[in-house]
Structures
1.
Amino acid sequence: MEQYGVYVPRLAPSKEYFAPGHRACIGCGEVLALRLVCKALGRDVIIANATGCMEIVSSPLPNTSWRVPWIHTLFENTSAVASGIESALKVLRRKEKISGKKITVVAMGGDGATCDIGLQALSGALERGHDFLYVCFDNEAYMNTGIQRSCSTPYGAMTTTAPPGKVSIGQKTRKKNMPEIAVAHNIPYVATANPSYPIDLMNKVKKAKGVAGPKYLHIFSVCPTGWRAPTDLTIRLGRLVVETGIAPLYTSQAECSLPRVPVHRLKFPPVKCLHHALRQPW
Ligand SMILES: Cc1ncc(C[n+]2csc(CCOP(=O)(O)OP(=O)(O)O)c2C)c(N)n1
Ligand code: SF4
């Protein structure tokens, strides 16, 4: 972690396609992930972005942080919009109305937009085999509207709609395993990432760009505001979820930069990680 500030600026592309001046909270892991995704994608992209924190903080009229073509979509139709864009590009290329240059089509949203409300459209797009990349920024709740629980909120965590106390443990259901659901669609590339491992994250985006067909990237994104965590712990918390095995980094392909950590070799018990984020009542 100490090497983060030394190496990443040297190894990451300096060009920013997601401009500074956006309105994300201090220490937001999700906006850091988005910035890294944009760096790795480069300029030849079209992004369909579901409602949620990353859309809200980046597009207060008349300003925008987007230096690439970008469209705001609903929760329900983000993957459908991306499917339409990809199909339109195919037709325009076939009719020689545009050059044959590769344009990466990307759909993105938070865990609420992805794992709950947009799941049907996402599943359809994966099944139809559209050539696009879906990026889920998983901060484990509907943060933008005030920390409501989603199906990606882990068991026992605190949210405003699942508050822990005398009558409840907090979130009562188990976290939906979205990357494994994507894998079950038999698509060519699924990976998990985390902005606390920025080079790994960017390599996975670059890898996905080069794979034909549907790709799914699930990015664990620390949200200090929603987790009631200190803002200077974002990178550390992102590391802890990997080191404790709470959110392992892996890909659906054979090669893997950071392997799953076997449970018996975890550096810390998971509770240490949860304790940092103050998300547990005990
Ligand atoms: C169908 C629908 N329901 C509710 C809303 C209100 N809404 C806007 S942003 C948001 C939270 C988004 O949560 P998530 O997708 O997890 O992204 P995050 O803000 O956490 O990044 C909600 C509920 C909406 N825009 N559309
Ligand atoms: S609420 Fe969380 S995810 Fe949203 S901008 Fe703030 S820190 Fe980022």
2.
Amino acid sequence: MKRLKLVFITLFYIIALSCNDNSKNIQMKDNSKNPGYSHTDTGKVVLSNEEWKERLSPEVYRIAREKGTERAGSSEYEHSKEIGTYYCAVCGNPLFESDTKFESGCGWPSFYKPVSKSSIIYTPDNSHGMQRTEVMCGRCNSHLGHVFNDGPPPTGLRYCINGVVLDFSKAKEAEKKYNQQPGVDTK
Ligand SMILES: [Zn+2]
């Protein structure tokens, strides 16, 4: 009888542990406070600063709505080679594909081309004694970073983007295709 009890307890722990593992794999960002967030809706999102403050984390709010800049080298996305899409962390608008990402060495995630022309809005930025071009999200007008003319071909552009205002989603299909290529050992 005691043995049976032990088997049940062991089984319980195995099931509990495997459930725990599953929840770890699903890394959905909590956007319950941000109902305008969507990866497919292209309609503009226009809200007051007060409304944004309620919906965004203080860190995202500071960069996206107050044109802040994250510390150089602080983004987990800077050196990431994962295959997928980078979305606006404020509204979910698709901004950059991972195959346009490159190592610029500037301290921020860098891309040479946005997903589409309408993904990004450009505006002159003459602050801090520099003449730069600011890039903003085409859907919600959030500040993302700047674009420079020293990028690689084919565009020659370097979109220098704050990782805090990016949401990354891994492309499951792309990953599968890559693993099925001859010469890629998945065992
Ligand atoms: Zn946006």
3.
Amino acid sequence: MTFDSIIGQKNVKKVLSDSIVSERVGHAYLFHGPAGIGKKLTARAYAEAVMCLHPNPDGTACGKCEACVLNKNHSNPDLKIYEIQKNKKGIIIEQARDIVQDAMTVPYYSNKKVFIIQSGETMNLAAQNALLKILEEPPKYVMIIILTTNIAVILDTIKSRTSRIDFARYDNEEIKAILKANGIEHVDESALAYADGIAGRAISFYNDDKINEIRGNVLKIAEGLAEGDAAYRIESAEYLASLKKDTEFVIYTMLSYYSDVSKVARYGKSVKITNKECENPIRMTASRLGFYKAQEIEKIINKAWGYTERSINIEVVMSNMLIQIQEVING
Ligand SMILES: [Zn+2]
């Protein structure tokens, strides 16, 4: 694993590889960004580069020395990756103590001993305080990388002793490249929308049946609205509101359905649509509503989208959205 094989994150890669070239590698880093953005992959690549005994002039790992060979086999005892243990809610104090103790001994085979702590946002105060011991006076050969999705829960004393590296969201071209590297050639618009700039989400769109189930259900609700009664609407709003984590995707899917409707209403049957599996109901709705009504519905959904970002009561937002859509359909 080298930086070159990581797609995107240009700034992060530049900062880290520059630190190696200029021999200014820090003792401790805080990698910050949403889950699935590439923090772990990058931490590993950085670890392998600083552990290498004979790095290339550009700061990359040689791939041939003892440290590199062991890293390739995932069997280098000088690289420790800490994750949440089974049946535990977060990184625990015992793990932090383990790091402090382990850091006392020099690396066996490598230029540095590296500790990667995943899910740093789950460390409670006790664990963070225990970890501080090593951050206050790190031995020269030690590097610690804490990965976190939430910077607010990290102690100021840890923040001030670590270099913070922020991971940016990917653009759609980068997401496509990452999907391609994962064997997915044909990328749907819905996948990009669901991913929202996060590679891990894009990959789970194709591997996680639950997401496709949600998409199917939301499209079914959109289809059924024309005929549905109040009970149908209430039940639908409850369901949509229950998908808390995926609210954006829910709204996007609704919107994509009605933008297909307005496209067909405006340009006719031959226009390319996003939700091909709903082609028939989309055509029927298009001829029933016409372009202006379809556009009106798109506006309603967009407005609801704005409300979901501010509102605590998502069920009310969803319910109002469905009521307004039905009013336009039947009005
Ligand atoms: Zn090497």
4.
Amino acid sequence: MTFAENAMKPLLLTHVKPMAFGPATPGGVVDILVGADGRIAQIGSSLAVTEDVTRVDGMGAWISPGWIDLHVHIWHGGTDISIRPSECGAERGVTTLVDAGSAGEANFHGFREYIIEPAKERIKAFLNLGSIGLVACNRVPELRDIRDIDLDRILECYAENSEHIVGIKVRASHVITGSWGVTPVKLGKKIAKILKVPMMVHVGEPPALYDEVLEILGPGDVVTHCFNGKAGSSIMEDEDLYNLAARCADEGVRLDIGHGGASFSFKVAEAAIKRGLLPFSISTDLHGHSMNFPVWDMATTMSKLLCVGMPFDKVVEAVTHAPASVIKLPMEDRLSVGSRADFTIFDLVDSDLEATDSNGDVSVLTKLFEPRYSVIGSEAITASRYKPKARKLVRHSHGYSWR
Ligand SMILES: [Zn+2]
């Protein structure tokens, strides 16, 4: 039977254990009936349903609000680095994907028409401050000088796409901005203020310094790659930067993981969490050069944070309520009759899987998040962790790299 045929029928989820639905979360194992209209019709233990329904047995698995990945790259075909939404979305347990600046004002219309609108998943986007976005990522940088930013066109693009755009993205790293320093971050903040949306800033190779970026950000803004292990950008190599990050987090700046190919360190994350500094949100920064190594998917990234000491319920909150607040997605009554179904069904299983961070450090994950289903309306999509493909050594103009 195809998903389309399934979607016509009501969906009965049996033996699922709700978590992260707020104070009214029912205890123990329940059944949930979702009507053919995609809305919750009934919740209870051992529902007696006589009508013709699609049945999914959760076998005691957890059910939470659908997972949200706050940092992915899915402008597939419009940038050289992006993957398809289907590669990191419902089939991986993620029902909402937030693209972090793959599109700029010059090409956002294509992203909307060819990716956002046809996708099964809910897709939101941070608009890149640079007009061209990540067309030829890091080969044709999007923020070389002021000619790469068009304030009027950004405002126009936002006006036409405000239901899709949730903020402004700035990649503040010398790989992109050369010696331009922190100026693009200041311009991004100005635009974000005018539009009354958050700004997400990528921190990496200085300039700009992580410290300078934090000084510009305000409550509600997001710093992604927060626990990177890069020289000059790690919060664990400079006590002043650590204290600044901790103070900004207290004041409402959101520290986002944004694992990616180069931006998550087990050592930094473990040390920060041990000192009580937890990430606000857990995101993958999945793209074509990070998926097979070292990120794989959302569930593995969540398992990595669990492994370095983040509590289980905090990990789930960091992929549900936390990113939902950034994109203004309402989270009240997500398990109430009449609400639209948007769930992830998952298990936490024992494991001895070896996983690698962006610095090449290896940890054994003793517990693994295993997504089983994504539920979007009356459709249940089978989900699993990504099985990485063998890496290939690729030759290019300035050497070799693993792909
Ligand atoms: Zn990214």
